Amino acid sequence: MIYIFYFLFYGFFLTAIIGLLASWIDRKVTARIQYRVGPPLLQPLIDIVKLLGKETLIPAGSSKITFLMAPIIGLASVILVSTLLWINNINPAKSFLGDLIVVLYFLVIPSVSIIMGGFASRNPLASLGASREMKLVLSYELPFILAMLVTVIKSGFTFRLGEILAFQAQNGALVRSWSGVLALIVAIICMQAKLALVPFDIPEAETEISGGVLIEYSGSGLAIYKLMKNMLLFTLPFFLIIVFIGGLRFDGIHLLYGVLKYISLVALMTVIRNTNPRVRIDQVVKFFWGPMTIIAIIAVVLALLGR
Amino acid sequence: MAKTIIPIGPYHPLQEEPEFFILTVEGEKVVDIDVHIGYNHRGIEKLSETKTFDQSTFVIERICGICSTSHPFAYTRAVEDIIPIEVPERAKYIRTIIAEGERIHSHLLWLGLAGHFLGYDTVFMWTWKLREEILDVMEILTGNRNNYAMFKPGGVRRDIKSEDIPVVIKKIDSIVPTLEMLKKAVIDDPVIHARTKGIGVLSKEDAINYCALGPTARASGVARDVRKNSPYGAYDKVEWDMIVTHNGDVFDKLVVRVLEVFESIKIIKNCFLNLPGGEIDANIKDIPPGEGIGHIEAPRGECFHYVRSDGTNRPVRHKVRAPTFMNLPTYKATVIGEDISDATIILAAIDPCYCCTERMTVCNIKRKKIYSGKDLIKLSREKTKILRNKMGVK
Fold it and tell me: What residue range is the signal peptide (chain A) (predicted)?
């Protein structure tokens, strides 16, 4: 019973609320950087509620079930990941062996659902977007997993998030070591790509392929995708905070630190996305398999040397 | 590999105007393009022939909202070529100032859009904010932010007040530091280099063969600028440089436009410094029969007007050739073999303006019948009759 509560309350509601809030912060800061006023506080929520009330069009000739299921699969996996992360953070003893690997797998599923939806909609632009998303996933997963390996090595070869947190509570956050810093930098850039924000918004690229994968989505399908993206805006930074910066704690001054950690990660993402143009897909593959992988490998070697 | 058709248009977030480009794509490589234009035809040339010489200036000012000075400028020069008449010095300077102000705002608009197409929305918003200052300047000088209505055959309609000049110069000076910063941010950005260098290269030979104009040609090393080659207005009386770069890629087109903004600021300030006194209008009374041409350097390249008069107060033929008409075909030379993600920025790099370009439209003769305006009115009346009968309205 308690897990259903975790699932609904923490996994869905709290994640969605914080995600929507983060999306508002992102939009507001972006607007202020660009000399605009920016949206009111409830705008991300209003967008989604409005979309839920709109008609859902299904393109002719598309694979209907796949087209409609894809956003739900993506959302479900995000809820599951955030539930796992919350349980780990609130009650580290409840975690199970290998949940780090489970989280890594589930974090790929939103991208997979986007690829599914894009191909299912039978639109040339959506297919192009989906194939780009596929290349994007292939390129950033390698350095991302290498960066996670640093955590595993540093915390004594454990695959339990709970033990990683416990290790950090005793020995200080992993980011205080050289290998931790390098791994965090790699992970933040991979996170930018996972969230498909500029400079890695290639699958959507509205001025190139007019929305790409999401071009055929309307109504509730689009609403679920938007909600999924907003929730990822909380889940991914939260994951990085657990893995590298010692997790969130809810007692006294630590709550403030937790909020600061999260806000600074979101702010960093916003800054990156506002000071860069979009790159090309071949450049992304070169970037992630070249410099990023090399930095990640250096971090792994440093971690093995105990730095 | 299978070929896919990727449409750009007729309505696309990239474009402000309806145009249709059919890109044939193999994987992510563009192998062929097919351009369909004609969605924006408004019959302006015909409209201009039904108006008097003075009224035509206002009609053709509305050909395009961005280069709304270049068309009247070229048109008035064509009319003055028929008579022929020399425009007063002060009018020449005022015309130059207005034309250069327009060039600044047009280039800034392009720079913002280019940023937007690359996904760099911060540049988009910043340049458009800078552009506001220039529009304010134009409002002080002419009374309008766009469509300035300053031109008339023989001179300008409105004088520049001497008390406005310091305000305007101060306003123009105030944008220079931000512009410098923006120039550094755009020209030195490594990611912009990665996205635009070596992309969509228009070789010098192709630029000459396709008769490319304006910044598109100057980026390919063709030193072609009406302001230098056949000076008009006050361009031969003030000091300025023609910006020419040699690589012909998107980045060079960007550099040419950004540097031209600084040249335009220089020209405007020089013009204000040397602004002579005197009349602003030559007071043309009659236009004799004859024909005249006027060509000027619009922000996008050479804008060419041809006017024929039969001695009445209306032009009997008015032909407009906008720079995009010559620049658009270079898209085919530049885009084939490039990535689909670069196709849009390569198109944007020529700064296309379709409403300027579309002077004619082609009817599809495969149809059974081509309806004229009269036929359509007749059809409409018949249908209304049927409907009225159905609804019982008398």
Answer: none
Q: Are strands B301-309 and B290-298 parallel, antiparallel or unpaired?
A: antiparallel
Three-state DSSP class for B72? helix
CA quadruple B241, B246, B247, B250: dihedral, nearest 10:
20
Q: Which of B119, B110, B121, B35 is nearest to A212 (CA)?
A: B119
Model pLDDT for residues A172-226, shown as the tens digit of each residue: 777 778 888 888 888 999 988 888 887 888 777 776 777 778 888 888 888 998 8
Burial of B362 (0-12, 13-18, 19+ CB in 10 A): exposed
Residue B305 pairs in a beta bridge with: B294, B320
Q: How far apart are CA B259 and CA B263, in angstroms?
A: 7
**Global pTM?**
0.83
Please indicate if the annotation marks B353 as binding a ligand. yes
3-state secondary structure of B31: strand
Closest residue by Cα to residue A53 from A218, A180, A219, A198: A219
Which positions in chain A touch B4 (Cβ < 8 Å)?
A: 124, 127-128
Q: What does the alpha-carbon distance between residue A155 and residue A150 come to, in Å, rounded to a whole number?
A: 9
> Is B132 annotated among the ligand-binding residues?
no
Specify the pairing of strand B315-321 against strand B20-26. Answer: unpaired
Angle between helices A15-33 and A219-244 (to 10 degrees): 90
- A277 with B118: Cβ contact below 8 A: yes
pLDDT values of chain A reduced to their tens digit, one per residue, 307 residues: 777 777 777 778 888 888 898 889 888 888 988 888 989 999 989 989 998 888 888 888 888 888 888 899 999 999 888 888 888 877 777 777 778 888 888 888 998 998 888 888 888 888 888 888 888 898 998 899 888 888 888 888 888 877 788 788 777 777 778 888 888 888 999 988 888 887 888 777 776 777 778 888 888 888 998 899 898 888 888 888 888 887 777 777 778 888 888 888 888 888 888 888 888 888 888 888 888 898 888 888 888 887 7
Q: Rounded to a whole number, what is the distance in Å from the CA of A13 to chain B's nearest CA?
A: 32
B255 in a known ligand binding site: no
Domain coverage including residue A50? 2-306
For residue A195, give the nearest of A100, A121, A135, A273 by alpha carbon.
Answer: A273
Q: Is residue B381 over pLDDT 90?
A: yes
DSSP for A46-115 reads HHHHHHHTS-----TTS-HHHHHHHHHHHHHHHHHHHHHHHHHHH-GGG--TTHHHHHHHHHHHHHHHHH
Alpha-carbon distance B127 to A32, whole Å?
15
Q: What CATH class is the domain B44-357?
A: mainly alpha
Q: E strands within B3-62?
A: 3-8, 20-26, 29-36
d(CA A158, nearest CA chain B) in Å: 38
Model pLDDT for residues B149-159, shown as the tens digit of each residue: 888 888 888 88
By C-alpha distance, which of B235, B236, B243, B254 is closest to B112?
Answer: B254
Number of domains in chain A: 1
A34 CB within 8 Å of a chain B CB: yes
**CB within 8 Å: A210 and B14:** yes
